[in-house]
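Workshop exercise sheet. Pairs work together: one partner reads the sequence aloud, the other fills in the structure field after running the prediction. Swap roles for the next sheet.
Pair: D.N. / O.F.
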Amino acid sequence: LVMSSGMPKLLDFGIAKLLKPELSPRTMVMTREHLQVLTPAYASPEQIRGAPVTTASDIYSLGVLLYELLTGHRPYRFSTHTPQEIERVVCDQEPERPSSAITRVEEMETEDGVSMLLTPENIGKSRAEQPDKLKRRLTGDLDNIVMMAMRKEPQRRYASVEQFSQDIRRHLEGLPVIARPATLRYRTGKFIRRHKTGVTAAVISVVLLLAGVIGTAWQAHVAKIQRAKAERRFNDIRKLANALIFDVHDAIKDLPGSTAARKVLVSRALEYLDILAGEPGDDPGLQLELAWAYQRVGNVQGNPNDANLGDISGALASYHKGLALAEKLVAAHPDNLGALKVQAVLFEKLSDVKSWSGELAEAIEMSRKSLNIFAQLAAVEPSDPNAQRSVAISHIKLGDILGNPNFPNAGRPDDALFHYHQALSILDGLRTSGPPDKTTHRYLGLIYERLATVYELQSDLKAALESYQKSLAIREQLAKDSPMHYDIQRDLAVAYEKMGTIHRAFRHPSEALESYRKSLAIFEKLYRADPANSAARRSLCFSYEHFGDALAGQGEINKALDFYRKSLTIRENLVKSDSLNRKDTADLGRTLYQLAKLSAQSGNMSAAASYTRRLLQLQHKQADSPEAGAYDLNNYAWSLLTCEPASLRNPQLALTYAKRAVEKSQASDANILDTLAHAFFLTGDHERAIESEKKALALLPANSPLRGELQAALDRFKSARAR
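Structure field:
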């Protein structure tokens, strides 16, 4: 590539090579020797053998992904995972055609150790097709498209991702595909089925015309061939990164069982994004594309509100890369609406992750920044429903962090209600002023759930029940219309779970268990469909525990223990896979605490002691880490005061950590002050126990459901002092 100054420049994207090695005055050495960084199941034969890797290798990997999404099976089965076995299978063995693979019965094991049996029936069911009909759909064009993408020889695959994508599109439109021989019989059959005279001839004419134009352009620019190659390679990477992150990812993200495929897409896409971001230049269009792409990758890596891979540190890194690009764009072009929008979205996503990591002050600050930018954009485009809906969503997210008990929050439920009502007003306006819209209805179902949760917190059970019922009605209809949509099905499961909780509050045990049972059935179905999905695993844990709590409330302690043990297995794997996720670690502690309590109630003090020792070890490590927040310290102190068996309690040590928790929270949290009061009381300091409990009560609003509990504790402390 020759610059305007005459300076030669080489764009090396990791696979650069001499076009004529014989012209080199010295022997060229590969940049990297004998080092393979790859996923065997998705690696091309040339990657396995250590040969040069080109775009053809990406086409091969996309072929493997398409194979897996169509059939539910992987194309290769390894008897061992030795390099020799992997090379033998991938390089020498022809994969079974997709139409044949779906008839295979195969057992696979998830990372949680759950055994899954893949049969034609459950594969067909997950794709809303009967097995025979699915086999017929795959036979022919789709078989050939997949097999062409996965040919052993790179030069025999599709020439580009665009050609691969175009062939799939041609199949969907009933046109002939290049993956099949262009026989007269094949073309005639396609023609008869379409009944569209002249389409085939028109397509051929366009292709020939394009070929002629390209050939003419090539002859006209022969002197600039090296620069054209570098630019094409750059644009290929740009198109491929966008195809992976947006087109391919969007096509599979709502399919059950797609998490493993999404993980491969993210890994490959990040490589391309970092190449593009590292290329100097001030192209605003490219910078905007990259900011959106990093945002999308961060969501898949570890956003707790999306189906994610549990990689929180990776998500934060991607969000910060995107935000740096967005802020640079906004600084240079303050009126660029696209740059402002991606900046607002990235602040919102960072707020999501920060809140679940216990960094509430930063989370609230970023959420407010996001809301302000979205409001600015909505003022510029008042008739755009998407802009108005973004403001509503931003109000919901800020309300969650301020005072929703189901999220890490600042304990300000009245502030949460203010933002929830702002969101409801906007969404109701969109519902009444425009055509039916699934997205708006989803958020209406969500806002009624959020309002009900805070009403329940404030002991307004009648208002809570009414809002939960409105949420359930909306979500049942949406789920009926979208039976395969992950998020919509999850919304319905949450609605049933909330109904179970409110029925328990009204002391309707049979209705509560029935609602929990419906919720659990959906969460188990979503988990079985995609065991690698961290969000699905967390949801299933909570569902097990809610069901266990309901059973324990009816005296069925042993059944409750069974459900809590199921939750424990999954939570331990979540913490093992992402040790930086402090929320997962705190949730594991809560599960261990409840298991110890239930074991003690069942009379098994040995099991209770075992669970409690694990709990105290886990919480001690959390509380002593540099990142410890007020609730990490408070949780450890409370366990030291109340754990079972009582012989493992340590009030003096609890007092030390309770004081640190109060200091960390700046004495602004009633729960933490209540823990301190109990620590003073159990160490014999009744006066300071009374003083701390009074401070805790002073922080609570008049309608707080905690007031009764804290007042009872204060009365007990005063009674003990009088004696």
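Discussion prompt: The CA atoms of residues 305 and 352 lie 7 Å apart. What would you look at next?
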